[in-house]
Amino acid sequence: MHDLTPPSAIRNPQSPIESPGRRAWQRFRQNRLAVGCGLFLFLLVALLLVWPLTSSANPNALSDAQFQSPGKSYWFGTDVHGRDLLARVFYGARISLLIGIVGASVSLIIGVLWGAIAGYTGGRTDSVMMRFVDILYALPSIVFVIVLITTLNGVLEKMQSKGLSAEGARVGQFICLFAGLGAVSWLTMARIVRGQVLSLRARQFIDASRALGASHGRILLRHILPNVFGVIIVYLTLTVPSIILYESFLSFLGLGIRPPQASLGSLIAEGAMHINPIRIYWWLIAFPGGMLIMTLLALNFLGDGLRDALDPRAGKSR
């Protein structure tokens, strides 16, 4: 009887077995859109870091060239105070990305710890911790953030009237913004991690670790969380654009970054203030808005690509 197995199906015993990480990397490389977005974000971050070192343009320098349209002297034009819009867009993009990364880090630390502890302990502790998350979920998130930031800004203004320096007030403003955005960004992360931990804690390798005398902390840090790492990275990538969008909306309302500092949201708000029936200074909205849209789309497509690469079943089910 002849063996009808095709030669391509016979695996060479000497060929190396691909690890899950290598297979995920190969799947990610096949997603050209995600790879292109990752390259775009890498070049954008490199440009934003190198720009202040190579350019002499001051984003807050005033001049008499108000409302200059884009040209050779000013590539992105100027605003109402004659400031170079190109420098301000790059400066605002740095602030927006910084806020997104810090907010996502807050979501990572609080959400992972909260979800891992709740899912691993179970029982009454899990019930109490997740009911607290449900209470925060029931509140309108944007209203909750606005009330929290307004309250913290009021406390900051009282401290400034009692002798707080301008530098201290600026740092306090960032802390208030981080606290407001971080107060709601970790909830979904906690739920996702809890669900993953609940499914992993009943596995046989966890029972074997307990039988060998491993402590609860060691089981969480060495056996459970590494298996949740892919899900955490994917959702962390998708959290950054949502926080940037939150901050842009708050800055548009005047509750985020305040002048003379700038973020992409505050630049769009400044451009919207100068729209009138007589003349529209389109560059004041087009360039900050374009930068914001490209950054958000690139982060979302990168997150989708990582999700499809780390969990191929999710990509097939859509």
Describe this structure in words.
The chain is mainly α. Helix content is 73%, strand content 0%. The protein is built from 12 helices and no strands. It has helices spanning 20-30, 32-54, 85-121, 123-138, 141-161, 166-185, 187-200, 204-211, 216-253, 264-273, 283-310, 312-317. Helix 3 crosses helix 10 (264-273). The radius of gyration is 25 Å and the shape is globular. The mean pLDDT is 83.
Q: How would you sum up the major sheet? A: none
SS class: mainly alpha
Cα gyration radius (Å): 25 Å
Give the helix tally. Answer: 12
Runs in which pLDDT lies below 50 for 5 or more consecutive residues are: none
Instruction: List SSEs in N-to-C order.
Output: HHHHHHHHHHHH
Q: What's the rounded overall pLDDT mean?
A: 83
N/C terminus separation: 44 Å
Approximate helicity band: over 70%
Query: What is the number of strand segments?
Result: 0
Brief sketch in words of this structure:
With 318 residues, the protein is mostly helical.
Question: What's the SSE blueprint?
Answer:
Elements: H1 20-30, H2 32-54, H3 85-121, H4 123-138, H5 141-161, H6 166-185, H7 187-200, H8 204-211, H9 216-253, H10 264-273, H11 283-310, H12 312-317
Helix pairs in contact: 1-11, 2-3, 2-11, 3-4, 3-6, 3-7, 3-9, 3-10, 3-11, 5-6, 7-9, 8-9, 9-10, 9-11, 10-11
